[in-house]
């Protein structure tokens, strides 16, 4: 019996178990939460492209500045939300790990299997495995950074990206999280029968991937330019 057959049999057997059905629903639910958050997060971050003041006001809004007498937001909001998202990531990763090939032979069998067929969904699943493995290490680093230092702003965020060299993390994180999330949302839509038009949905997912990569790259470059102009110590941005 080949490794790929053993993997298939193991997954098929587990799918008949009540826990497997619950894990599938939990994986899909947390995946939708994370994918939806990514779409919102990247657009909020990209407000820096409209200028420092635009990003400043977006941050104050998201951190509850309307409830402050000074109009300034509460960084604790970012800290608490980052803790919550870390918990969602942990749950998502825990239920998703049962789908990962556990042995080197299974990975080889999967690669041979992919080489012998031209099944687009199988190739998409493979890339989701690869990016999921990468995110297993990168996402906690990003979230722990936000938990330990939740201060956000045009200058403070640029300081993190440029002076603290966080761009090295984001250059790897951006393509991995975008590809993983968009493929994940595509697979959830197909899995739960939200749509049967796979070809059209795949094209839409590809468009979203390209769009988000361009948006994220432009935002990252903007932070780098802002950071390069800041002196040390960095002073928080204050609108005129």
UniProtKB/TrEMBL annotation:
Membrane-traversing stretches: 26-44, 76-97, 124-147, 167-186, 207-226
Keywords for the protein's UniProt record, in alphabetical order: Heme, Iron, Membrane, Metal-binding, Transmembrane, Transmembrane helix
Chief subcellular location: membrane
Key word Transcription regulation present: no
Annotated coiled-coil segments of the chain: none
Compartment(s) where it occurs, according to its Swiss-Prot or TrEMBL record: Membrane
Cofactor dependence: heme
Matching Pfam families: Sdh_cyt (PF01127)
Function: Membrane-anchoring subunit of succinate dehydrogenase (SDH).
Name by which UniProt lists this protein: Fumarate reductase cytochrome b subunit
Native source organism of the sequence: Shewanella scandinavica
């Amino acid at each position: 019996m080949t490794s790929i057959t053993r993997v298939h049999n193991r997954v098929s057997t587990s799918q008949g178990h009540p826990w497997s059905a619950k894990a599938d629903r939990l994986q899909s639910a947390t995946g939708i939460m994370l994918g939806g958050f990514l779409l919102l997060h990247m657009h909020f971050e990209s407000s820096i492209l409209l200028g420092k003041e635009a990003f400043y006001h977006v941050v104050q809004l998201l951190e509850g500045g309307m409830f402050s007498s000074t109009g300034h937001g509460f960084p604790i909001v970012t800290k608490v939300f980052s803790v919550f998202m870390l918990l969602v990531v942990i749950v998502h990763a825990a239920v998703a790990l049962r789908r990962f090939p556990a042995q080197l032979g299974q990975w080889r069998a999967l690669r041979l299997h992919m080489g012998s067929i031209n099944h687009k969904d199988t190739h998409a699943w493979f890339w989701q495995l690869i990016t999921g493995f990468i995110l297993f290490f990168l996402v906690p680093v990003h979230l722990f950074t936000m938990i330990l230092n939740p201060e956000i702003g045009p200058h403070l965020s640029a300081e993190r990206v440029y002076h603290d060299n966080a761009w090295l993390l984001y250059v790897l994180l951006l393509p991995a999280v975008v590809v993983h999330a968009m493929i994940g949302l595509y697979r959830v839509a197909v899995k739960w029968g939200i749509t049967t038009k796979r070809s059209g949905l795949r094209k839409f997912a590809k468009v979203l991937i390209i769009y988000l990569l361009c948006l994220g790259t432009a935002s990252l470059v903007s932070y780098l330019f802002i950071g390069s102009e800041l002196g040390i110590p960095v002073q928080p941005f204050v609108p005129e």
